[in-house]
């Protein structure tokens, strides 16, 4: 069984993150990821960047399910924070 901090570390090994939050119950995880690596990429490409990087863990069922609730650039994240 994985813990949120382990999934967070997996994502941080893929891309540099300015902000990351991972929650989950050991099987299903939800992530908020803010990274400059998302610059110039559409939503689908951002999600693929993460999911492709974790393909082995997802295929082996080590990581059962990962939902990326937010994949934002630092500027997009700041704009959201200012609206809140």
Automatic annotation (TrEMBL):
Gene3D superfamilies tied to this protein: BolA-like
Pfam families assigned: BolA (PF01722)
Highest taxon above the source species: Bacteria
Residue ranges crossing the lipid bilayer per the database entry: none
SUPFAM superfamilies given in the database record: BolA-like
Classification via InterPro entries: BolA, BolA-like_sf, BolA/IbaG_stress_morph_reg
Family under the similarity heading: Belongs to the BolA/IbaG family.
The name this protein goes by in its record: BolA/IbaG family iron-sulfur metabolism protein
Species classification: Bacteria, Pseudomonadati, Pseudomonadota, Betaproteobacteria, Neisseriales
């Amino acid at each position: 069984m994985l813990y949120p901090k382990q999934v967070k570390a997996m994502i941080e090994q893929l891309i540099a993150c300015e902000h990351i939050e991972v929650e989950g119950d050991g099987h299903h995880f939800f992530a908020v990821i803010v990274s400059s690596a998302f610059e110039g990429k559409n939503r689908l490409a951002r999600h693929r960047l993460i999911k492709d990087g974790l393909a082995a863990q997802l295929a082996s069922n080590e990581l059962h399910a990962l939902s990326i609730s937010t994949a934002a650039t630092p500027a997009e994240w700041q704009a959201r924070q200012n609206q809140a």
